[in-house]
Amino acid sequence: MQPLKDKIAIVAGGTRGAGRGIAVELGAAGATVYVTGRTTRTQRSEYNRPETIEETAELVTQAGGKGIAVQVDHLDPKQVQALVTRVEQEQGRLDILVNDIWGGENLAQWNTPVWEHSLEGGLRMLRLAIDTHIITSHFALPLLIKNPGGLLVEITDGTADYNNTHYRLSLFYDLAKTSVTRMAWGLAQELQPHQCTAIALTPGWMRSEMMLEIFGVTEANWQEGVAKDPHFIISETPRYIGRAVAHLAADPDVARWNGQSLSSGQLAKVYGFTDLDGSQPEAFRYLPEVQELDKPADATGYR
Fold first, then answer.
1. Cβ atoms of 264 and 244 closer than 8 Å
2. Roughly what angle, to the nearest 10 degrees, separates helices 238-250 and 17-28?
3. Which residues of the chain have pLDDT under 70?
4. Got the DSSP string for 169-225?
5. 26 and 245 Cβ atoms separated by less than 8 Å
6. What structural domains and CATH numbers belong to the chain?
7. Is 294 helix (H, G, I), strand (E, B) or coil?
8. How far apart are CA 195 and CA 255, in angstroms?
9. Predicted confidence (pLDDT) per residue in 224-250, tens digit
10. What single-letter DSSP state applies at residue 104?
11. H-state helical runs in the chain
12. d(CA 252, CA 233)
């Protein structure tokens, strides 16, 4: 079954990580997905990583949808406007907008006070996390609201409840991720009169391409990463949050979530989907109940 057949999506920031997982799962549900990012097979962004938007688009098509790669720097209003104009000309509508633009990991200086943190790097991080999302929404939402039922998903790190009681180890990173959650809430107020929905969504401990490299493992042998950190046992694939977005997009009653801060693990329990291994990891329940209490790593009952 393809509940999103004939639906049109933009996954802004779909080169790798959560964006790629989301794009692929939207494709598996039948959607046409415009995959944007800065890195192509002929040009790399400052990230300097090998994953490309073309690869993601091909994975979308292989999954059963239609993937269309478009190189976009979401800090450039003209490029974003051109993207939306293209979508409108080619499809005449937009049903799903996923703002997953980021790219700031290499700029974060963890456990470093603001007066010691690179100001240039910190402000760049905020631009990548906040300005990109606002610019994209500014141009894309007029197309989204042309039809009732449109969905905006703002991807961040951490639920509102978790971030309200946990400092995210850098003022800039903390502001970047909590601001996106507030952004989703604000946009929910603006979209509601148009019968559209905005949601903030976070993965748990996600095994992105970068995270797998940090742990020196591949997706095939990821459990060996527990030797480096036993709590890695609660981690999840990028496809898990992808399935969360696909189920939200297919939910005729998605408006019940308008303005809320949600997690992949939370929605798995509601919609009944699983990660690729058939489990349902709940990282944001595990972290405070196990890891932060210095209990032995044990995902029993949490996945």
1. yes
2. 50
3. none
4. SSHHHHHHHHHHHHHHHHHHHHHGGGT-EEEEEE-SSB--HHHHHHHT--GGGGGGG
5. yes
6. 8-208+241-279 (3.40.50.720)
7. coil
8. 8
9. 999 999 999 999 999 999 999 999 999
10. -
11. 17-28, 53-63, 77-91, 119-126, 132-144, 160-164, 171-191, 209-215, 238-250, 264-271, 283-289
12. 34
pTM: 0.97
Q: Which residue has the tokens 């997982």?
A: 21
Give me 86's structure tokens: 């293209």
**CA torsion, points 223, 226, 231, 235, in degrees to nearest 10?**
-30
Distance CA 153, CA 250 (A): 13
- Residue corresponding to tokens 């809320």: 260
Angle between helices 17-28 and 53-63 (to 10 degrees): 30
- Token pair 């693990």 is found at 265
**Quick check: 132 and 77 in contact, CB under 8 A?**
no
